[in-house]
């Protein structure tokens, strides 16, 4: 019995088509999970800054009178999480459908909210950083976080369908604007 292209290949293509859909769903889930982890690390940093007692040593060491999650530890952890999420997004396949793009958009929106809350906390804490002479250290960290976040944003936008990439860029735009504002504030003279 002879087999021809239509009788052997067409059924295989039909069977494999759901795998393509699963791959796109998998990429969206993988990227969303990575963004959610960054959001959690961002919130931890914000909580650390909000609860900081203003003592220099408590930036580094946990203890009963200071942060359970010191700011320096939270900032380094966040930077590592952003770099890990960037690699995850880079290594993920494209998100070719609207459903996957919406899933990533929701995770992005949650992350943008957490970043803005954390940046606002950093700005409110500037007088404490000024008093401890740590403002230059925070300014350096803001620059590193901004650069890393821009890289993550670009990798995520690259995975979104081309017709939705402008919208994706608009979703992440407030993050860079927030970093720009925080950096401007930290460039201002100390307010002892």
Automatic annotation (TrEMBL):
Residues 1-25 form the signal peptide. The keyword Signal applies. GO terms for cellular component: extracellular region. The keyword Signal applies. It comes from Cladorrhinum samala. Keywords: Signal. This is Cell wall galactomannoprotein.
């Amino acid at each position: 019995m002879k087999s021809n292209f239509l009788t052997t290949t067409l059924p295989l293509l039909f069977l494999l088509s759901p795998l393509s859909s699963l791959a796109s769903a998998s990429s969206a889930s993988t990227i969303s999970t990575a963004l959610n982890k960054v959001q959690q690390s961002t919130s931890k940093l914000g909580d650390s800054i909000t609860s900081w007692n203003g003592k220099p040593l408590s930036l580094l060491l946990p203890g009963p009178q200071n942060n359970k999650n010191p700011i320096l530890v939270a900032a380094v952890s966040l930077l590592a999480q952003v770099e890990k999420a960037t690699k995850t997004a880079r290594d993920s396949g494209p998100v070719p459908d609207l459903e996957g793009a919406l899933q990533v958009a929701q995770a992005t929106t949650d992350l943008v909210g957490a970043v803005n809350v954390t940046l606002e906390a950093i700005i409110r804490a500037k007088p404490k950083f000024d008093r401890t002479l740590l403002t230059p250290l925070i300014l350096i960290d803001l620059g590193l976080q901004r650069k890393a976040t821009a890289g993550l944003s670009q990798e995520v936008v690259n995975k979104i369908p081309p017709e939705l990439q402008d919208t994706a860029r608009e979703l992440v735009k407030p993050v860079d604007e927030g970093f720009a504002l925080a950096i401007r504030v930290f460039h201002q003279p100390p307010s002892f």
